[in-house]
Specification:
32% helix; 4 helices; four-stranded mixed β-sheet; alpha+beta; Glutaredoxin
Length: 115
């Protein structure tokens, strides 16, 4: 499998992860998820493979998190996934998929767990 990174080129952490992949000898498939948001089914798949709940993948800084009131526990997992699809900026970055697993690479050193 060619590694796949859900990447935001404006994010320094995401750029570090992409550079680390390339320095490890991989030329990953780069998905700029803000331009091409993952489907709800793909978000569910990524969450399952990372063993995370949707709330654990929510990015708060620089997103509509506060405006949407996502701190409120009334939002179900399904609601959060729907909002991540509609507002992909709510998805924490960077997510990397490899043959060895799928990982939220925050901090970037977490990439080593799946290389």
């Amino acid at each position: 499998m060619t590694p796949r990174i859900y990447h935001n080129p404006n994010c320094s952490t995401s750029r570090k992860v992409l550079t680390a992949l390339r320095e490890a000898g991989h030329e990953p498939e780069v998905i700029e998820y803000l331009k091409t948001p993952p489907s709800k089914a793909k978000i569910k798949d990524l969450l399952k493979r990372m063993k995370l709940r949707p709330r654990e993948l929510l990015r708060k800084k620089g997103t509509p998190y506060d405006e949407l009131g996502l701190h409120d526990q009334r939002w179900t997992d399904e609601d959060i996934i729907d909002l991540m699809h509609k507002h992909p900026v709510l998805i924490e970055r960077s997510i990397v998929e490899t043959d060895k697993g799928t990982q939220l690479c925050r901090p970037p050193e977490k990439l080593n767990e799946i290389l």
